[in-house]
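Notes to self after the Tuesday call (sharing in case useful).
The group wants a holo model before anyone commits to mutagenesis around the pocket. I volunteered. Ligand is adenosine-5'-triphosphate. Logging inputs and output together so the record is complete.
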Amino acid sequence: MKRILAAVDGSEPSLHAARLAGDLATKLGAQLMLAHVCVPMVYPAETAWVPIADVERAAESHAEEVLKRAAAELRKQGIEASTLVLHGAAAETLADAAKAEDVDLIAVGSRGRGAVARVLLGSVADRLVHICPKPVLVVR
Ligand SMILES: Nc1ncnc2c1ncn2[C@@H]1O[C@H](COP(=O)(O)OP(=O)(O)OP(=O)(O)O)[C@@H](O)[C@H]1O
Ligand SMILES: [Mg+2]
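Result:
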């Protein structure tokens, strides 16, 4: 196992998944990558007009912030990770990245930021398990 990707949306379950991926990477001598996907938002028609470039910049800097915080969290445990900002539909984009980066494993939390108590598996984790060509580790 040489490369492990952890998908981080800033939620506690995703950080938990990243920590576990970091432990595995350390034990196996693998590289760890943290990825966040900026998902395009759909605005109601009456939303005030905002230049698309501003929206994209805000999403990009949010992604960088999420990844920076996760990387700092892992560094406290002595784990170094590279970071990757991606754009698109979350599960599809993560599956494509897992393939493009030729990772051996992708780790996700079972839930994320949209956590609704009764949902056992979030839609991104669920979809990723269905479509990802690489092994997916769903962390509870
Ligand atoms: N935009 C994203 N970028 C990176 N990883 C993500 C993103 N969204 C979700 N994930 C990953 O998927 C895991 C599960 O999150 P998911 O979005 O499936 O659940 P949820 O937010 O609780 O539910 P839902 O999004 O269906 O309302 C997260 O812990 C994280 O690892
Ligand atoms: Mg979610």
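Two things stood out.
Residues 7-9, 11, 13-14, 17, 35-37, 39, 90, 108-109, 111-115, 122-125 surround adenosine-5'-triphosphate (ligand 1) (CB under 6 Å).
Helices lie at 12-28, 52-75, 90-100, 123-131.
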